Amino acid sequence: MARGFKSIRDGVTALAILALIWLFAAKLDDRPDTLHSGRFHAADGDSLTTGAERMRLKGIDAPELHQSCERGGKRWACGRAAKEALQALVSERDTRCGGAGRDHYDRLLVVCRSGGIDLNAEMVARGMAVSNGDYEREEARARAQRAGLWAGAFKRPRDVRDHERRQSGLEDARR
């Protein structure tokens, strides 16, 4: 009987310690969001600037600014179109962007809202960006409606960047 009680006590103690560690880790990650509102400038289809702050829309990936896509057998400047779409969305007076983390370029990772609309989700729903896991429903809807990028053929922005890095590495090796 005493042995059974000791096992239960040890299990409860271990569980309490694990819960305490989890709470401590959650508190360390509980940084307050940095909030921005006002005038935003779209650097491309998933990056914004306001003053000196550079921001990256969290959970989405838009075509590179110079990227072209295919639609109806013709090339179109999908990277420029994505930038213009984002700029139109952040032009509203009530746009607010907030986030806590930073990417490897030190850009603040943000979710932007205007008029109650999640602008990150809206870029994906319009087919002007792809989801990085956060906006799968919006991407599925854009695909089904053949909106934006989904109206033709395109390379995922990540693949374009990877190709450019490889090409740059080859150029560096040739020098």
TrEMBL record:
Transmembrane stretches, start-end: none
Superkingdom of the source species: Bacteria
Keywords associated with the record: Endonuclease, Hydrolase, Nuclease
InterPro entries with a match to the protein in the record: SNase_OB-fold_sf (IPR035437), Staphylococal_nuclease_OB-fold (IPR016071)
Domain (TNase-like) ranges: 44-152
A GO term, aspect molecular function: endonuclease activity
Keyword Electron transport: no
Pfam families in UniProt: SNase
Full protein name: Endonuclease YncB(Thermonuclease family)
Source species of the chain: Rhizobium azibense
